[in-house]
Amino acid sequence: YVRARQPEKAQELLTDLLEKNPTDANMNAAMAELYLQKNDWKNAERHLSVVLKNDTLEADVRFRIGIAYYSQSQKDSSLLSKTYDLFKKFTKQYPADWRALLYCGVIARASKEDSSAQIYFTRATQVANWNPDTWWQLGWLFFDKQNFNEAITVMEKAKQYLPNEFRVHLLLGIVYSRAQRNQEARIALERAVELNPNDLNALSSLGLTYDALKMHAESDSSYERALRIDSTYPLVLNNYAYSLSERGLHLERAVTMSKTSLQKDSLNPSYLDTYGWILFQNKKYEEALIYIKKAVDLGEVSAVVLEHLGDVYAKLHKLDDAKKYWNKALELDKKNAALQSKIERGTL
Description:
Blueprint: H1 7-20, H2 25-37, H3 41-52, H4 59-73, H5 80-93, H6 98-110, H7 114-127, H8 132-144, H9 148-161, H10 166-178, H11 182-195, H12 200-212, H13 216-229, H14 234-246, H15 251-264, H16 269-281, H17 285-297, H18 303-315, H19 319-332, H20 337-345
Helix pairs in contact: 1-2, 2-3, 3-4, 4-5, 5-6, 6-7, 6-8, 7-8, 8-9, 8-10, 9-10, 10-11, 10-12, 11-12, 12-13, 12-14, 13-14, 14-15, 14-16, 15-16, 16-17, 17-18, 18-19, 19-20
């Protein structure tokens, strides 16, 4: 009846059967599935608790139960700890099953237990090196920690097992870009676009990398290609607008694109900085200050944004403030000779 999508009849039958054998794992599992279909977690959990008392459950059954708890924990965070325990028990009973290892890693990350997450994700790549999800999670963990060298090592290893996996090349390209290894980033991202020509993140990242390599025709082509797919995609609009403004090209279009990206995400520091920097290029320094200062005030920003704020203050003849932010930028980008020279001059 469950398979035939007759839930009411199935529930009636299961209720009668459970009265005779209330601890039967299979019948409780089936009843829990019916309640889950109705989004009735309270009754579903009552039956799942009975099922979990059976230590001889098959891996697939235990995994489905774990997923049910995980899904509910996204609505009720008090269940996350119990969900974590369920998957940890799964990993002990089925150490060669990558699924529980992956979910343990995900939950560990959500719980700010990065060292545990790293262990689980690493084990997952070892037992399922064919699975891109395991490599993606491990690589992204290192990327988020800004441990770019380790992230590169992981994703280069992933590429050996998954040479035609789009996400491996995408993440590898993004990490190489952040590590300022732009030629290697270009190769990885070109491959990612080859594998998935319509992915906006890949096209945007490739455009950004081409721009860093001063390959402006190729950069513009990547951005235009992305905008033909989605003319309102904020990341592409922002990056393209910034690139055009840096070259002093099509500033009116750059303003329009930047405004559109801000309408999509008004609290994005990068988008605020881009719009402010275009205003700066148009010599609207007081207006530029509003946006770039807001970008800095929102939290962690790059050396470039801090330098921009210093430049705005310099144009407003507030040299003490300018030096303050130039020095902050230099702390993040110690090898920036042009910035160092600017600080020594005390002016633009």
